[in-house]
Amino acid sequence: MQLAKVVGTVVATQKIEGLEGEKLLMIQPLTDALEPAGAAIAAVDSVQAGVGDLVHWVSASEASLVLNNPFVPVDAAITGIVDNVNVEDVGIKDKEEIFA
């Protein structure tokens, strides 16, 4: 799962055929610790996310599958809005604890 924070919007006066009417947002990819990872990227929004939302996103060929035409060249797409993230760090267990 790839997480990101929506940090802005993209306004495009011209779009390739298949992207007309699609909302584009700028997202900041995040690490597992919810820290920024790399530069912000543009992504197609398929879930009506907004600035400040924590979202799930996909890249590569999976990104184009959110569109009606899966052959539109898209590198990233927002596929979900994340309500909550729970991380449990149970630490490293030794074999006696695992096989007890």
> What is the number of strand segments?
5
Q: Which percent range fits the helix content? A: under 10%
Query: What's the Cα radius of gyration?
Result: 17 Å
- The best one-word shape is elongated
Straight-line N-to-C gap: 32 Å
The third-level CATH topology is OB fold (Dihydrolipoamide Acetyltransferase, E2P)
In percent terms, what proportion of residues is strand?
25-35%
Main pleated-sheet profile: 5 strands, mixed, barrel
Q: Give the oligomeric state of the chains in this entry, treating copies of one chain as homo and distinct chains as hetero.
A: single chain
Order of strands, main sheet, comes to 1-2-3-5-4
Question: Can you tag this structure with a few keywords?
Answer:
2 helices, mainly beta, about 100 residues, OB fold (Dihydrolipoamide Acetyltransferase, E2P), 5-stranded mixed barrel, about 35% strand, about 10% helix, 5 strands
Which helices and strands occur, and which strands form pairs?
Layout: E1 2-10, E2 23-30, E3 41-45, E4 54-59, H1 61-64, E5 76-81, H2 95-98
Parallel strand pairs: 3-5
Antiparallel strand pairs: 1-2, 1-4, 2-3, 4-5
Summarize the structure.
This protein has 100 residues and is mainly beta. Helix content is 8%, strand content 34%. The chain has helices at residues 61-64, 95-98; strands at 2-10, 23-30, 41-45, 54-59, 76-81.
Architecture overview:
With 100 residues, the chain is mainly beta. The protein has a single domain, classed as OB fold (Dihydrolipoamide Acetyltransferase, E2P) (Beta Barrel), CATH 2.40.50.220. The chain has two helices and five strands. A five-stranded mixed beta barrel has the order 1-2-3-5-4. It is elongated, with a radius of gyration of 17 Å. The two termini are 32 Å apart. The relative contact order is 0.24. The mean pLDDT is 88.
